[in-house]
Amino acid sequence: MQQLEPEGAWQAGGGRPTLGLVPSGKTPRTILVIDDDEGIRRLIEFLLAPEGYRIATAGSAEDGLEAIAAAPPDLVLVDMHLPQRDGFDVITEMRARAQTRLTPIVMITGDATAGAKLRAIESGVTDFIAKPFSPEELTARVRALLDLKAATDALESAEEVLISLARIIDARDPYTYGHSSRVSYFAGLLGERIQLDPENLRTLKRGALLHDIGKIAVRDNVLCKPGPLTPAERAEIQSHPARGRDVLANMKTLAAAIPIVYHHHERMDGSGYPDGLAGESIPLLARITTVVDVFDALSTPRVYRRALRRSEVLEIMDQEVRKGWWDARLVEEFRQVLNHVPESEATPDSAIVPAPLGVAMGTLAAAARHEMDWIL
Question: pTM score, two decimals?
């Protein structure tokens, strides 16, 4: 039998500590109760603390939001009717914050109308519990929602591992250090420029950050090769979109980003890979990522050349638009984005690895062809 030991519940806004039983060595889940009725706060604390949860209480929306900002809980129980700001304000603010966007929220109601419940659902409430409530119903709902939160946390942790892995992949070649982060940043700026909705903008930034995740399966001697690739090596490099898709295939939280990872090497004329898609059949978020990916690759140094100046990069990209490779509208919109970003600040990581002395630079066109061989 697992040993149990006492744990004092933490409080926000005052109140006595409650003795709960928590499995030894296991961090208890935290629940915040926001209700202006002290009797309700104490009752919920009395019912839930023995289940092994840490309980915090607050008597107003302001105190509750302050407690959430200081230490985001795993679950929030909030009364619909609060003085000054109500429970709807709490829900709206929590959903607007990245840290609590997925936190379960249960609204405690006594006389909620159908309209009030609809408003709460639209604000992002997870569940309702009506006053008066039974202890069994309360504990069952809380347990189920905390199990869901644990599963969500596990998925987010796995996502964080993948994001860290993407940055490690960049670091395998010192000449691409920071590439994925820059692509994500500039893709976000371009997405804002063309007025993507918030959900698509989040997806774009995640997908752009992970666009090269499939390179984990590419050998270092191929990934970092300074000269032209053999046909076999080119095939290995070109396998990375499919491998990246496979890495993300079981990550439901990243499912929307898969088309970015899989299609960011397509070309508008259908000459890209892996599927040879053309024109509008290439997903918009993938086309955005492609434009920024090409820009960053040309703007940063490689073992065989210096970093190209912005004017040179844009000249090359314009030439490739005329060839039918890139989305002309997106390239033009990206040019407008760059007008607001000083060139000295555009790719700060490029200064980390200066081009080696004595490297033959060749002509701009030759450098561009070599670059296209490398990244495509």
Answer: 0.61
